[in-house]
């Protein structure tokens, strides 16, 4: 009743090709954006911005980047955190070494730097596939973090590679409050998410999906593997790089190379598994889920412990968190390999027929 | 020259320790096509169960038997509740499931046995062998030699088991072709349960060796990260590959750690230690560019 596209006729090619062809989707997306840009800043508290919303958006962007590579182009990567680190350190160095460079430009350049490094580590994907490639991306993870720790030039000679980011100045206005930072992050993420949504349905995106499904077959029908795979690595690393730059500048303010650990890469991988491999929206759902779950457990576990009179130490709580993470990953892979995004799709299909299913 | 030899032998012996972990990967990959990222976590679980049982008052031999039972049950449970449900999923999905499994174990094991680092006493001391020290002036650890011996025995046992027993033949058949094996009446699920049991046993041996070496602590899970480059170098499907790969990685890693940082220091200044973390990976990666299926891996043929 509410969600039905019957009667929405498309009379031009432009109307047929738009990003959200169903009116209800358009209304939904616009409502969501209005709420995110206007509603949330009115009501959310400072804690919400700096501890939940900003990291959520940043990790969603990183997950989106990984999803482009893994979900669309089918190349599993275990090094996304390292590409975020490249972005963070590149943005810092552009700010530091180029006089008066606007912050958004250095974010963009940071993304491009990450893309360059991504291409470099994507080169083996032309020869090796599957697990071998996954292990090879670990080389990126360890090597990049090591470089950032050991080459003092990259962190402006600070001890053990810790950097403190510069001020965020946009058009002469300095962003200091969490709300302003949130709005900046939100704008960047929205633009990049829409760009990604557009990209994956273009020729490029279709080529990626063909390569994912079977690369030999794809090359037989005339898709050139090398540019396609490398482009996937470049775009994915670009997204991760920008996410990393924002992680340093808008979220933490001070980062160290070891912060971009293998664990963080796994976390981003878990986001796309739980959210939905090969889905833009899944990246957001997965990021929300993975970030909120520890908070949820932190709140509920002591309560449960009280209920049964069990003594829970903080170590136990963190062990329970890891266990629950692991169990959930296996659960999702078994029960719903396409993740939360698939559940949402099923809900939409049900809504189409509601209230009169066949 | 003496120093070079000492580093080389030390590296080769530590390579044997990596190979011990890599063996577990190879076992499971060969038989079920699952790339088991949780092998490192299983090593941790095995070592923790031995120490945990000993803390409850069991003598060493009993603790080992108990740990073996725990590992076997655990392996069978994994096969039954996780992997069997994922049959026919793409291999990458199985791989990600084992990452989940690794997290699951890493959370659960310390909850049961406690997370504080502990020592595991096997009665072998980690000290240089005197007569080598006297005659050649080289420091070769007794413990490393014992570990190498254990690895050799383990590999020989596995090889005999695969080659000459009924179950071993069935395992090789399954590894070759699941469907063909099924069609001639090999019970696939029993075989997989056995494979996970054997992998648990290998994890137990590796866990005891590593645990006695570095103490039983969370860092044991990182042994998996040490074993991965060994695997890609040696090929996922080959037991000798795991051994040879381990030796190459161990030796080159130790040599690189000694000889590369000073060169880099001359070039750039600053301290460049700690390249052990990534050097094996880069080495394996470069190697893959030349031979994508690893040293002893089967050549991969794509069919459309």
From the structure above, extract its key features:
heterodimer, A: 358 residues, mainly alpha, ABC transporter involved in vitamin B12 uptake, BtuC, two-stranded antiparallel sheet, two-stranded antiparallel ribbon, 14 helices, B: 304 residues, 12 helices, globular
Secondary-structure content class of chain B: mainly alpha
Form type of chain A: globular
Greatest interface and its participating residue counts: A-B, 44 and 49 residues
Residue share in helices of chain A? Answer: over 70%
Number of helices of chain B: 12
Cα radius of gyration of chain A in angstroms: 21 Å
The overall pLDDT average of chain A reads 89
Report how far the terminal alpha carbons of chain A are from each other: 14 Å
Described by its quaternary structure, the protein is: heterodimer
Largest sheet of chain A: 2 strands, antiparallel
| Biggest β-sheet: strands ordered side by side in the sheet of chain A | 1-4
Radius of gyration of chain B: 20 Å
Which architecture name of chain A does CATH use? Orthogonal Bundle
- The share of residues in extended strands of chain B comes to under 5%
The domain count of chain A comes to 1
Percent helix range of chain B: over 70%
Helical run tally of chain A: 14
Low-confidence stretches of chain B: none
CATH hierarchy, class of chain A: Mainly Alpha
Structure overview:
The complex is a heterodimer of chains A (358) and B (304). Chain A contains 14 helices and four strands. By secondary structure, chain A is an all-alpha fold. Chain A has a two-stranded antiparallel sheet. A two-stranded antiparallel ribbon of chain A has the order 2-3. Chain B has 304 residues and is an all-alpha fold. In chain B, 73% of the residues lie in helices and 0% in strands. In chain B, α1 crosses α7 and α7 crosses α9 (188-214).
């Amino acid at each position: 009743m509410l969600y039905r596209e019957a009667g929405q006729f498309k009379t031009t090619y432009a109307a047929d090709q738009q990003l959200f062809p169903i009116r209800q989707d358009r209304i939904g997306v616009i409502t969501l954006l209005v709420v995110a840009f206007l509603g949330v800043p009115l009501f959310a508290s400072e804690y919400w911005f700096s501890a939940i919303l900003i990291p959520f958006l940043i990790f969603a962007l990183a997950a989106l980047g990984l999803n482009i590579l893994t979900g669309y182009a089918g190349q599993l990567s275990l090094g996304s955190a390292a590409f975020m680190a490249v972005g963070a350190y590149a943005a810092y160095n552009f700010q530091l070494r180029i006089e008066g460079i606007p912050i958004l430009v250095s974010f963009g350049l940071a993304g491009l730097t990450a893309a360059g490094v991504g291409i470099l580590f994507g080169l083996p994907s032309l020869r090796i596939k599957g697990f071998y490639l996954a292990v090879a991306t670990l080389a990126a993870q360890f090597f990049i973090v090591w470089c950032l720790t050991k080459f003092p030039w990259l962190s402006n000679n600070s001890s053990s590679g810790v950097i403190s980011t510069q001020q965020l100045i946009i058009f002469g206005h300095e962003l200091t409050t969490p709300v302003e930072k949130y709005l900046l992050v939100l704008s960047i993420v929205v633009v990049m998410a829409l760009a990604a949504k557009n990209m994956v349905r273009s020729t490029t995106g279709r080529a990626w999906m063909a390569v994912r499904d079977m690369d030999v077959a794809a090359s037989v029908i005339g898709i050139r593997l090398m540019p396609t795979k490398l482009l996937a690595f470049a775009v994915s690393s670009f997204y991760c790089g920008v996410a990393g730059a924002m992680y340093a500048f808008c979220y933490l303010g001070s980062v160290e190379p070891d912060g971009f650990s293998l664990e963080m890469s796994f976390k981003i991988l878990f986001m796309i598994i739980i959210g939905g491999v090969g889905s833009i929206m899944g990246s957001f759902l997965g990021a929300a889920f993975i970030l909120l779950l520890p908070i949820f457990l932190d709140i509920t576990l002591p309560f449960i412990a009280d209920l049964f009179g069990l003594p829970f130490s903080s170590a136990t709580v963190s062990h329970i968190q890891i266990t629950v993470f692991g169990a959930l990953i296996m659960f999702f892979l078994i029960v719903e390999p396409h993740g939360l995004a698939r559940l949402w799709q099923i809900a939409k299909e049900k809504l189409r027929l509601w209230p009169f299913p066949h | 020259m003496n120093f070079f030899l000492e580093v080389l032998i030390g590296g080769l012996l530590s390579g044997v320790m990596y190979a011990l972990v890599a063996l577990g990967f190879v076992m499971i990959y060969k038989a079920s096509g699952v790339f088991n990222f949780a092998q490192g976590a299983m090593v941790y679980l095995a070592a923790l169960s031995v120490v945990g049982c000993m803390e409850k008052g069991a003598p060493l031999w009993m603790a080992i038997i108990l740990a073996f039972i725990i590992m076997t049950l655990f392996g069978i449970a994994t096969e039954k509740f996780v992997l069997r449900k994922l049959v026919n999923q793409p291999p990458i999905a199985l791989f990600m499931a084992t990452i989940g499994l690794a997290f699951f174990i890493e959370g659960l094991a310390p909850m049961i046995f406690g997370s504080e680092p502990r020592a595991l006493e096997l009665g072998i001391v980690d000290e240089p062998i005197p007569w080598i020290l006297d005659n050649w002036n080289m420091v070769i650890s007794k413990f490393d030699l014992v570990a190498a011996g254990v690895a050799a025995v383990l590999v020989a046992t596995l090889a005999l088991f695969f080659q000459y027993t009924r179950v071993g033949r069935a395992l090789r058949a399954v590894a070759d072709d699941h469907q063909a094996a099924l069609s001639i009446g090999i019970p696939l699920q029993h075989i997989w349960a056995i494979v996970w049991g054997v992998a648990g046993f290998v994890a137990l041996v590796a866990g005891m060796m590593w645990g006695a070496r570095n103490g039983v602590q969370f860092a044991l899970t990182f042994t998996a990260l040490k074993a991965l480059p060994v695997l890609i170098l040696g090929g996922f499907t080959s037991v000798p590959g795991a051994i040879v790969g381990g030796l190459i990685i161990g030796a080159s890693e130790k040599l690189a750690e000694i000889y590369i940082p000073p060169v880099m220091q001359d070039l750039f200044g600053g301290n460049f230690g700690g390249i052990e973390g990534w050097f094996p990976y880069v080495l394996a990666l470069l190697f893959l560019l030349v031979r994508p299926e690893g040293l002893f891996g089967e050549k991969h043929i794509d069919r459309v």
